[in-house]
Amino acid sequence: MSALLLLGAAPSPADALLVGDSLAFQLASRLFKAMRPRVLAADGRGGSSTRQWLRDRLFRQAVLSRPARVVLVSLGVNCTRAERPGLAADIKKLVTSSPVPVVWLLPPPLKFDTGYLHNAVAEAGCRSFDPGALPLDDGVHPTDAGHKRWAELLVEHLWPRVAS
Q1: Which of 6, 45, 85, 110 has the greatest count of CB atoms below 10 A from its CB?
Q2: Closest CA relative to residue 46, chosen from 28, 76, 22, 79
Q3: Tens digit of pLDDT per residue, the chain (164 long)?
Q4: Domain count of the chain?
Q5: DSSP letter string, 98-115
Q6: Structural domain containing residue 30
């Protein structure tokens, strides 16, 4: 599954660009609703890994084709054991190639250990966001309610409301 979406009005740049794997693909529509009236651009590719986004220049294409104020990245869950030793370096290359700030979206606790991803993001020195536990549909992908909650938490993290 792959999609390049522009959700909302089309001012330039978008408020956020969401890129990554199936978690990004599935989060996009819920994040669009939670961000209103802000604008979200998204490129989600199911089953993709950090190495693929780097090697195939998918990240570069996404950030150049749809300028945004911040890039949200959901990658790492599909990294193979062979890719994991170089994951921090791959993350650092992606992050430093972005013309705008990057926030790495850590997955909620899944049916398998993702400590390697948390460690790689920290080692790369990347700003990250951890949604905490969310209800999962299949042990990997959040339920609709889980995606909605993730989007709400992310919006509050990125654009906290200022008390008036």
Answers
A1: 45
A2: 22
A3: 444 444 444 457 899 999 999 999 999 999 999 999 999 999 999 999 999 999 999 999 999 999 999 999 999 999 999 999 999 999 999 999 999 999 999 999 999 999 999 999 999 999 999 999 999 999 899 999 999 999 999 999 999 875 55
A4: 1
A5: -SS-EEEEPPPP-SS--H
A6: 2-158
